[in-house]
């Protein structure tokens, strides 16, 4: 399945898809999944490091968990707003993409503080998402 194809089927779009915006929406959804998974893995890392039950959340990972969860929510919102084609609201799309860039950069910086492979992958995905959102911003009026 293709996000680009789905957007292209919208009557207003008539096949003329803003490719950078479609890619930003797609990668924002990926980023939402990566950050959710990272938050979940961080909660398990903290628990196992302290010898607690898997449901425990270690204090040293709590900021990373919170940041990943917040980033996931912002990325999800950006993806949804970026795929809506009815009406013209470049100002809203611009604001949402800008928030996504900021959230991704904050999350990447937080994940960089931790020596876990899932944090490294999450930080990489966040930076890629931010780059895609920047490219999409450049295409808006």
List the helices and strands and how they pair.
Blueprint: H1 3-8, H2 19-50, H3 59-83, H4 90-111, H5 117-137
Short description:
The chain has 141 residues and is mainly alpha-helical. The protein has a single domain, classed as Substrate Binding Domain Of Dnak, Chain:A, Domain 2 (Up-down Bundle). The chain has 5 helices and no strands.
Q: Span between N and C termini?
A: 28 Å
Mean pLDDT metric = 89
CATH topology: Substrate Binding Domain Of Dnak, Chain:A, Domain 2
Question: How many separate helices?
Answer: 5
The assigned structural class equals mainly alpha
The CATH architecture can be given as Up-down Bundle
What are the secondary-structure elements, in order, as H or E? HHHHH
Percent of residues in helices comes to over 70%
Shape: elongated
What is the class in the CATH system?
Mainly Alpha
Quote the beta fraction. under 5%
> What is the strand tally?
0
Q: How many domains, in number, for the residues?
A: 1
Q: Indicate the radius of gyration in whole angstroms.
A: 17 Å
Q: Which consecutive residue ranges, at least 5 long each, have pLDDT under 50?
A: 51-57
Largest sheet: none
Pfam families: Csp (PF03860)
InterPro entries: Csp_YhjQ, YHJQ-like
Protein name: Four-helix bundle copper-binding protein
């Amino acid at each position: 399945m293709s996000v680009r194809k789905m957007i292209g089927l919208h009557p207003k779009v008539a096949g003329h898809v803003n490719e950078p915006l479609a890619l930003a929406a797609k990668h924002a959804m990926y980023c939402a999944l990566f950050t959710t998974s990272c938050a979940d893995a961080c909660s398990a890392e903290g628990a196992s490091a302290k010898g607690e039950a898997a449901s425990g959340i270690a204090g040293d990972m709590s900021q990373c968990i919170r940041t990943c969860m917040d980033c996931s929510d912002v990325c999800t919102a950006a993806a949804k707003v970026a795929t809506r084609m009815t009406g013209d609201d470049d100002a809203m799309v611009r604001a949402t993409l800008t928030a996504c860039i900021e959230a991704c950069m904050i999350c990447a910086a937080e994940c960089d503080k931790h020596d876990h492979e899932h944090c490294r992958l999450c930080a990489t995905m966040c930076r890629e998402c931010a780059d895609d959102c920047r490219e999409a911003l450049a295409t808006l009026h």
